[in-house]
Design goal:
The chain is of the alpha+beta class. Helices cover 20% and strands 44% of the residues. Strands 1, 2, 3, 4, 5 and 6 form a six-stranded antiparallel β-sheet that branches. It is globular and about 35 Å long.
């Protein structure tokens, strides 16, 4: 998967579902990234990889983006959303950004739920400058 992510000229990563005790998907793990990956606060791939999406970017909950990703994962229908106003809170600071979000589920329905992945690309503008995009699978 890393090779596919590296083919993107934008920020890219792969998300793997995280389930609760009842088997419901409640979050995604950032499993792989490409060299362009940055979030709206400027953290790079090494700071994001291996962590949960909601932990690294709680703004996905309030903005509804997490619900969108869950919908993509469950239905298989691709997502294109935005531009949308997004605010991330980190270290007592607010990081506003304008996002363009695209997501697709990678993998087929024949695989067990733990094998399907979500691929997401986010284009964002922070502090008036265009920042790299993210593609998460």
């Amino acid at each position: 998967m890393t090779g596919v992510l590296e083919a993107s000229h934008a920020s890219a990563a792969s998300l793997v579902p995280v389930t609760d005790a009842g088997g419901r998907v409640v979050d995604f793990l950032i499993a792989a990234t490409n060299r362009h990956t940055k979030d709206v606060t400027g953290r790079g791939a090494d700071q994001l990889r291996g962590r949960r999406l909601v932990e690294t970017s709680p703004g996905v909950v309030k903005s509804g983006v997490l619900d969108d990703y869950l919908s993509v994962y469950e239905s298989g229908a691709p997502l294109t959303r935005g531009p949308l106003e997004f605010v991330e809170a980190r270290d007592g600071l607010l990081w506003p950004a304008s996002l363009m979000v695209r997501a697709v589920r990678a993998g087929d329905r024949a695989r067990p739920p733990g094998r399907r992945h979500l691929r997401r690309r986010v284009r964002h503008r922070a502090a008036g400058a265009v920042a790299p995009s993210q593609v998460l699978r």
